[in-house]
Design goal:
The chain contains 21 helices and 16 strands. α2 packs across α3, α19 packs parallel to α21 and α20 packs across α21. The N and C termini lie far apart (75 Å). Helix content is 37%, strand content 17%.
Length: 499
């Protein structure tokens, strides 16, 4: 509403989600002296159309009344589909302004204010799905302040820096508009302490695997773990996650945005740690990579900035695994469904774990394998060649003897391991600003290794990336032949293993 003289008309600003981003929605309410009716237009989703019942009950419990006459609500722009319950508060505010039950604040205050909240039937203001994304995009939408649930006001103020007005109940709306609100106090969130070290302390007798996950954590490399049941594959995946450094501000905000848009409960403090997602192999294709109507993010987006752990990856559908190839390269995935096309961030670190054969005991020192060569070949070859090429570190495991697990031998020096990974990440961040050239001896070794192992162009670059990470862990800026030798040792077994 731009003028107080516009009797029976009100305009309130809100927003809706499109993927992980907010789009501005202008809620226009018209009250006509006609037979009682309610019309909601502007491509509302089913959830938005149900706002009529929520708003009616909330108005009654807040001491207001549903106006007499015909109420028409238009959600502009009309060509954009509106999703979610974040429009509840804006629609209710527009109805109260149009019916004269609330007084317009005057000036441009309403035009510059985002109203984003869901209404409970008793009038309590609740946080809708995607509230963090709506708040983060408020300034970009040209809005100077926002009215949100009071329980979320402090957190959103600290995240966005936008003037934030917290509202606990619809009955307080008149007082808020009368004084044009009061900014909620900001809540500051400290970075969390390092993840528990108990996982790393359990890794006895897996020195080679621990070295591999240290390299993976330092360089963000994708890992495959092959070993019999109970050898510690899941524990190693968790250990890799625990070695990752806390997220920087940009990645932290991205994680909060994603989890808010997906309707997941989130803790701003805990969200400083990278995510760890472990979908079951029965997950649908849409659940893994995203999809549906409206388009929604999948597990690979929820793992953005962290670890995507696929246990028993040979049980996943081959089509699903092959759909991981593009996001593994680009860090994002573009989905197109029924005229919609959206891009979702998907820069995850894949940890794929599986048994080496159907019975699980190929190459094991503990138990003899009973599988035929053909069944072993078919089992592992469910993973296509292009995807195998993208898994940069392959680690074969075996069961650790009980005397090693229960012995008095000290476990890994967790503090030293964490410090070496953090130092390697810091050196790598500085080094990317200036490319490191290879020595003549290193180039000769790489050429010879590529010819002997018949490496593809992608595999050559993969070996070089791993070697550079190993060099950083050793405190060296440029990789040496010994670093390339270790990187080549992590290459995947040839197709048809098990013959």
């Amino acid at each position: 509403m731009t003028k107080s003289s516009d009797a029976g008309v009100a305009r309130v600003m809100s927003a809706s989600l499109r993927g992980l981003d907010a789009v501005a929605v202008r809620v226009e309410v018209d009250l006509a002296p006609d037979l009682p009716a309610f019309s909601l237009v502007g491509l509302p989703s089913t959830g938005v159309r149900e706002a009529r019942e929520r708003i009616g009950a909330a108005l009654r419990h807040a001491g207001f009344r549903w106006p007499n006459g015909r109420v028409t609500v238009n959600l502009a722009p009309t060509e954009e589909r509106k999703e979610g319950a974040a429009l509840d508060l804006a629609i209710a505010t527009g109805i109260l302004l149009a019916s004269g039950q609330l007084r317009h604040p005057g000036g441009d205050w309403m035009r510059e204010t985002l109203f984003a909240a869901e209404l409970a039937l008793d009038g309590v203001i609740r946080a809708p799905r995607g509230l963090v994304a709506l708040a983060m995009d408020a300034a970009a939408l040209g809005l100077r302040r926002m009215v949100v649930p009071r329980s979320q006001a402090g957190m959103l103020r600290s995240l966005t820096g936008v003037e934030t007005l917290g509202l606990p109940h619809l009955r307080q709306l008149a007082a808020l508009l009368g004084r044009r609100g009061s900014t909620a106090a900001a809540e500051l969130f400290d970075q969390p302490s390092a993840a528990s070290d108990s996982i790393l302390r359990q890794l006895r007798g897996q020195e080679r695997a621990l070295r591999a996950i240290s390299v993976a954590a330092a360089g963000g490399h994708h890992v495959s773990l092959l070993g019999p049941p109970g050898c510690g594959k899941t524990l190693l995946a968790r250990a890799l996650w625990s070695l990752l450094p806390v997220l920087d501000d940009e990645a932290w905000r991205a994680r909060l945005r994603i989890e808010s848009c997906c309707g997941l409960p989130f803790d701003p403090v805990a969200a400083r740690r990278p995510p760890f997602r472990a979908p079951h192999h029965s997950v649908s294709t849409g659940g893994l990579v995203g999809g549906g109507r409206p388009l929604a993010a999948g597990e690979i987006t929820l793992a953005h900035g962290g670890v995507l752990f696929l246990d028993e990856f040979t049980e996943f559908a081959q089509r699903q695994l092959d759909m991981l190839r593009e996001p593994m390269e680009t860090g994002s995935i573009r989905l197109a469904r029924q005229g919609q096309s959206l891009s979702f961030p998907s820069a995850f670190q894949l940890v794929a774990a599986a048994n080496p054969c159907p019975c699980g005991y190929a190459n094991s020192r503990v138990r003899n394998c009973v599988c035929t060569p053909g069944s072993k070949r078919r089992y592992l070859n469910r993973l296509s060649g292009p995807l195998r090429d993208r898994l940069e570190l392959w680690v074969e495991l075996d069961r650790v003897p009980a005397q090693v697990l229960l012995g008095s031998q000290p476990s890994v020096d967790v503090l030293q391991l964490r410090r070496s990974v953090e130092a390697a990440v810091a050196r790598g961040a500085r080094r990317r600003e200036d490319a490191v050239s290879l020595s003549a001896a290193t180039e000769r070794y790489l050429v010879a290794a590529a010819d002997k192992l018949q490496l593809s162009a992608r595999a050559v670059h993969s070996v070089l990336r791993v070697a550079r990470t190993i060099a950083l862990l050793e405190g060296s800026e440029a990789p040496a032949p010994e670093h390339l030798a270790e990187a080549c040792a992590y290459r995947p077994p040839p197709m048809g293993i098990g013959d």
